[in-house]
Amino acid sequence: MSTVDLSRVRWRKSSRSGHGNNGDCVEVAWSGDAVGVRDSKNPAGPVLVLPAHAWHSFLAALDRGCFDSPSP
């Protein structure tokens, strides 16, 4: 993937921020066909950049419960 310019993107904080995790969460931003993901506590820190199709696949896996913890 080529370099993605995230200097002017609008970051969006997860809607689950603040629900039992002290507001610590992730933020995402779209730039063309890429998605940036960063730690909301450290907005100047590193950013994980994914192709949009990989982000959509990740979200679909979340919806299917692929990352849920097993019940005791």
Outline the secondary-structure elements.
Blueprint: E1 12-13, E2 26-31, E3 34-39, E4 48-51, H1 52-63
Highlighted features:
1 helix; flat; 72 residues; single chain
If you had to describe this structure to a student in words, what would you say it looks like?
The structure is a single chain. A four-stranded antiparallel sheet has the order 1-2-3-4. 17% of the residues lie in helices and 25% in strands. The protein has one helix spanning 52-63, and strands spanning 12-13, 26-31, 34-39, 48-51. It has one domain. With 72 residues, the protein is an alpha+beta fold. The chain is flat, with a radius of gyration of 14 Å. This is DUF397 domain-containing protein.
Structural class: alpha+beta
Counting DSSP H or I runs of 4 or more residues, the number of helices is 1
The radius of gyration computed from the alpha-carbon positions, rounded to a whole number of angstroms, is 14 Å
How many structural domains?
1
Pfam family, one: DUF397
Region (Disordered): 1-23
Protein name: DUF397 domain-containing protein
Domain DUF397: 10-62
